[in-house]
Amino acid sequence: MRERPLTLLQDDLVDYEKAMERMTDLVGQRQRDERSDTLWLLSHPQVYTAGRRTLQQHLPDPSHGIPVVNTGRGGQLTYHGPGQLVGYLIVKLGDEGIVDYVREVELRLVRALDALDVPAERRETPPGSPLLTGVWTKRTGRKIVSIGMRQSRGVTSHGFALNVDGDLTPWGWAVACGMPEVDMTSLDREITSTTGVMDRVRAAVATAFEAS
After folding, report:
1. For a pLDDT cut of 70, what percent of the chain falls above it?
2. Distance (Å, whole) CA 164 – CA 146
3. DSSP 8-state secondary structure symbol assigned to residue 53
4. What one-character DSSP code corresponds to residue 207?
5. Which segments within the chain are labelled E, that is strand?
6. How many Cβ atoms from other residues are within 10 Å of residue 174's Cβ?
7. CA–CA separation, 18 and 15 (whole Å)
8. Which of 177, 198, 204, 208 is catalytic?
9. Parallel, antiparallel, or unpaired: how do β-strands 155-163 and 120-121 relate?
10. Which residue in 74, 90, 97, 190 is a FRET match for 148, CA 20 to 30 A apart?
11. pLDDT in tens, 98-118
12. Catalytic site includes residue 90
């Protein structure tokens, strides 16, 4: 994996649509070489986001009261909420394509989870199967990270969502990641010691992405 130091931005809870406005601005800055490659860590209030390949039947029942926002990223339906760490990656790619960079993101998140004593892995997609983009725990085989990204004029946007200590119930109200049988998990579900876990996760992720 190549060295790729990033500038780190951090926020707590940011409304999803306001975050999209800022992310668009950051992408424009990177396209004009007005800023360096960037990792923005934050969380969102409850929201479902639908990628370009999301099927109508995978959407949640609106009676739960959680909004659904359509996005231009790859991937399918995902859920964001408090207790989840979201990372937006604004990175200018060289010769590699977005698929290659997504693999790098998976491997860096595996490294972060290993540092948190949650052995994890990325998975290859068998021919004819739904894309297995993301990260799974080795001990339990559950999915802990969702990834959905896009590339515009050579610069990436969107990123990943790592479940830390939030309520997992809303994942069960929709078809997450286009996989009806997926079992979504969190650090809180996988480890016994969760004191200060969000701060530890932020630090581990920043280290894994060479972000400061």
Report:
1. 98
2. 12
3. T
4. H
5. 7-13, 38-43, 47-50, 68-70, 78-80, 84-90, 120-121, 135-137, 143-152, 155-163
6. 22
7. 5
8. 177
9. unpaired
10. 190
11. 999 999 999 999 999 999 999
12. no
